[in-house]
User: What shape does this take?
Amino acid sequence: MAGSEAAWQAAQMGVEVVIHEMRPTVGTFAHKTGDLAEMVCSNSFRSDDDEQNAVGQLHWEMRAADGLIMQTADQHRLPAGGALAVDRDPFARTVTQTLKSHPRIRVEYGEISHLPEGGQWIFATGPLTSPALGEAIRAETGAAALAFFDAIAPIVYAESIDMDTAWLQSRYDKGETEDERRAYINCPMTRDDYEAFIDALLAADKTEFHEGETAKYFDGCLPIEVMAERGRETLRHGPMKPVGLTNPHKPDQKPYAVVQLRRDNALGTLYNIVGFQTKMKYGAQTDVFRMIPGLHEARFARLGGIHRNTFLNSPTLLDGQMRLRSRPNIRFAGQVTGVEGYVESAAMGLLAGRMAAAELLGREVPAPPQSTAMGAMVTHITGGADAKTFQPMNVNFGLFPPVEGLKGGRRGRKDRYKAYTDRAKSDWRDWLDAFDG
Ligand SMILES: Cc1cc2nc3c(=O)[nH]c(=O)nc-3n(C[C@H](O)[C@H](O)[C@H](O)COP(=O)(O)OP(=O)(O)OC[C@H]3O[C@@H](n4cnc5c(N)ncnc54)[C@H](O)[C@@H]3O)c2cc1C
Assistant: This one.
């Protein structure tokens, strides 16, 4: 996805491009063909609503930027209500043919297993980056900065948390500053709440690993349901331990367990539920997590998951132009940068392709503003996210800077989202106009 879009954008700007694709010679457990831009699982590009949905807004921005992936998806669209579903085989074949017939693009089949010293490169090797290249990247970045599995805890919109029930406090009030002493949102549970929560967790539907995807859990990131299976009290002695915390709403009552949420972005609009990585199905997750006092009305920017997924700690490794700080001739794009999904991956390819081509053409290009869906994503992965807890992210309105003067909460949501997408469209047009000169 990302590599195809990056190649297209750079070639359209007048730059000669070589695409290196290891398939069909070297395969992955998920890809079935040798085509570029193969959709490995669902055939959906998700919502196409560019007024009320952040991924729909991203579609809009990619179309406005002459994106090959969106153009081809539109060409092979299938009926799916408000979603953009795609006829996957003709879609991938058309992308492949379009790129192969471009006068400035050449496709070479073969694995790249090292980070080259010279030339301008974009590595868009995805969640299933080949093992040899993964090792080469790891040698460059250090083991702590490249993950081979994700462990995604659900992320909640801060404004949907009931602060009459929850409260801000770090365990044992630790921290140098007031902000640090109030860094976590705490949700208290009585014994009855806890027992009901454990029952629901154990009974919930779970997803299995894909065929060929090795099931491998690491200490420190076990799914919560696996922890609960090890004993009903395990969570209460782990991520839900109630120690070092005092509920200011009920100072005389000691909670039986506490669920903690930690700030997930610099804007403070998103919080992740600490230690709650899970393989519960999405529907089950919303039901189970809304049982938590303080989260009864929670809205989720993303739900949890655990997948085989090679991704960089981009906030520490990449600069605002998506270049590897230690090797600026190398950019990364797509899912390997810590975005998630076909659309987000292609979007980061679009940006990386344009940025790399601009650099080769000797032009200065600022990153797009955070108020656009593109800018919101690239700002998040290259610095807005907390590097210590960095996990892959979908595009969502929590990544956009708030629009001042609008009503908060559920009632104001429609107007707020419209204001975000109106502002994004205008700012994206301005950025494209400046870019295209
Ligand atoms: C099992 C599975 C299911 C998924 N389901 C969905 C889903 O339903 N919806 C969704 O939106 N996203 C899904 N994803 C995520 C999906 O992979 C990404 O959204 C998207 O494909 C990422 O795009 P990308 O361009 O970053 O990587 P990819 O599309 O994977 O492209 C990377 C390319 O690099 C090639 N490559 C890798 N290493 C090398 C090398 N060393 N040398 C040369 N070429 C190399 C690969 O063959 C591949 O063609 C799924 C991922 C997996 C693994």
User: Anything to note?
Assistant: The domain at 2-148+308-436 is CATH 3.50.50.60 (FAD/NAD(P)-binding domain). The chain has 14 helices and 16 strands. Residues 413-436 form the longest helix (24 residues). The first strand starts at residue 17 and ends at 21.
